[in-house]
Amino acid sequence: MRKHKKPVVLENVLVENYAAEGKSLARVDGKVIFIEGTVPGDIVDIQLTKNKKDWAEAYPLAFKKYAENRVTPFCKHFGVCGGCQWQMLPYDKQLIYKQQQVTDNLGRIGKVEMPPILPIIGADGTVGYRNKLEYTYATRRFIPKEEFQQLRADDKLTEEIEGTIGAAGFHAKGQFDKVVEIDVCHLQEEPTNLIRKAIVAFAKENKHTFYDIRNHEGWLRNVMVRIATTGEIMVNIVLGIEDKKAQKSLIDFLLQQFPAITTLLVTINRKFNDSIYDLTPVAQFGNGYIIEKLEDFQFKISPKSFFQTNTRQAEKLYQITREFAELNGTQTLYDLYCGTGSIGIFCSKDAKKIVGVELIEDAIKDAEENAALNNIKHSFFTAGDVITICNDDFFATHGKPDVVITDPPRAGMHEKLVKKLLEIAAPLIVYVSCNPATQARDLALLDEKYVITKIQPVDMFPHTHHIENVVQLKLRESGTL
C-alpha cells in the first residue's frame, strides 16, 4: 500500500517580500518559499504544497500576526471569489509591488541594458473600473470553508446542497462546476449587480433551469454586461437551450426593469465550454453593439470584440504608447496584434499610414468599421500571420514600417515574430505587454539589434497582481544607439 507523505507544516514564518503572480516570499533555513494569500510583514503558519530542494510553495493555515500596512478588504467575497487578490493592501503599496514586478522581470529574465524605469501610472478609480464582466449561472453553489463547517455542525449540509436550485457569480477557483454566489461585485458600476440578480429572480420565479456543466444541461448559462463611458449598456445572455417563449419573456422583463440597456443580445451555447468566439450572438433589442470613446475617437464594440476592460486607464496606456512612438506625420506605423484597431486608430493623427495585422478575421472587420467610424482613410487592416504576411511584395504595396507597435497576449511574441522584427529592422518599436515576464524574454532576443530607451509601467487592474508595461526600443547603429 502506498504511504501518503505527512504534510509539512511550518510555524511562525515571517513573510519578507513580494515575489510574483500575487504570491509573497519567505525564507526558512535557506529555502525560498512562495506563499499565496499573504503580504510582506505577515507572520503565518503555513503548509507546503510543493517541496523542492531549493524552493517550495505554500498556503497559510493561520495568521499569527498581520502586517501593519494591511487594510480591511472592502468586498465581503474577498478570499473566496478568487478575484481582487490584493484588497488587503493599500493601493500605494500595490503600486510599489507592481513596479518591483516590472523591475525584477526585466532585470532577472531580460538581463539587458536598460534605462531607469519610470514611476508606475496608477488608476484614478480603483473600484467600478471594468467596462465588461461575465457572470456564470450554475446549479451548484460553492460553499466556503467556514460556512461548510457551520452547516455540517447544524446538520444542514445536505439540505443546503439539495435546496440550491441555482447560483450566480464567478467560477470558484479550481472548481469547474461550482460558482461563488456574488452579492455585490465592486469591479463594475451598476446596474451590473442588479441585472445579474434580476435574471436569477426571473429564472427562479418561472422555474427555469440553471446550467449544469457536469451533465451539460440546463437553460440559463452566462450573462455578459458591458458598460461604456458613453453611458451605453450591452447585455448578452447566453443560454444552453433555445426556448423562444422563455427567451422572449426574459428579454421583455429585463427591458422593462432596466430601460437604460441600449442593446440586448442572446447567444445559444450548446458546447461543453463557455467561450462564444465561434458562436453568433443575435440582437433582440438595439443594434447589437455599443460605442465607447477614447479621447475623441469612437469605437464600435460588439459582444465578441476585444477591448481594453479599463477604459479610463486604456486612454492613459494609449497616450503613452503614442508618445513612445514619436510620430511626426511622415512615418508608416505597423500595429501588430491590432485586434479591433484601437491602438493604431488612437495614433492615426500623427502617422502617414496605419497598417494593422491580426490573426482573427472578425477583429479585422471591427477594425475596418472603427477606422470608417473615425473617418480614417490612411489605414489598412488585414487578417493573417505577420510572419508570412510581411514579405517584399507586402512592403512594396504598403511600405516598410518606420514604427512598429506590438501588443501580444500574455504568452508574448512567437520567436519567429521576434526574428521577423529583427529582419524588418524598423527604426523604432513600442512593445505593449500585459505580462512583463514574457516581455522580458522577448526583449532579450530583440537586444541583438535594439536598445531599450524608455520603460513605463501602467496599472490597469487595481487590487490584482496584473500589470501592463510599455517599452520603447530603438534600432542600434553600428552596435550602439
Protein described:
The mean pLDDT is 91. The chain has 12 helices and 22 strands. β8 (167-171) and β9 (179-181) form a beta hairpin. The chain has helices at 91-110, 145-153, 157-163, 192-205, 244-257, 311-325, 342-346, 361-373, 386-389, 392-398, 415-424, 436-446, and strands at residues 9-14, 17-18, 24-28, 31-35, 43-51, 55-65, 132-138, 167-171, 179-181, 220-227, 233-239, 263-268, 282-285, 290-294, 297-301, 332-336, 353-358, 379-383, 403-406, 428-433, 450-458, 468-475. It has 3 domains: 9-70, Nucleic acid-binding proteins (OB fold (Dihydrolipoamide Acetyltransferase, E2P)); 94-125 and 308-475, Rossmann fold (3-Layer(aba) Sandwich); 132-294, OB fold (Dihydrolipoamide Acetyltransferase, E2P) (Beta Barrel). It is α/β, with parallel strands linked by helices and 481 residues long.
In short:
This protein is α/β, with parallel strands linked by helices.
List the helices and strands and how they pair.
Layout lengths: L8 E6 L2 E2 L5 E5 L2 E5 L7 E9 L3 E11 L25 H20 L21 E7 L6 H9 L3 H7 L3 E5 L7 E3 L10 H14 L14 E8 L5 E7 L4 H14 L5 E6 L13 E4 L4 E5 L2 E5 L9 H15 L6 E5 L5 H5 L6 E6 L2 H13 L5 E5 L2 H4 L2 H7 L4 E4 L8 H10 L3 E6 L2 H11 L3 E9 L9 E8 L6
Parallel strand pairs: 4-6, 11-12, 16-17, 16-19, 17-18, 19-20
Antiparallel strand pairs: 1-5, 2-3, 3-4, 5-6, 7-8, 7-10, 8-9, 10-11, 12-13, 14-15, 20-22, 21-22
Helix pairs in contact: 1-12, 4-5
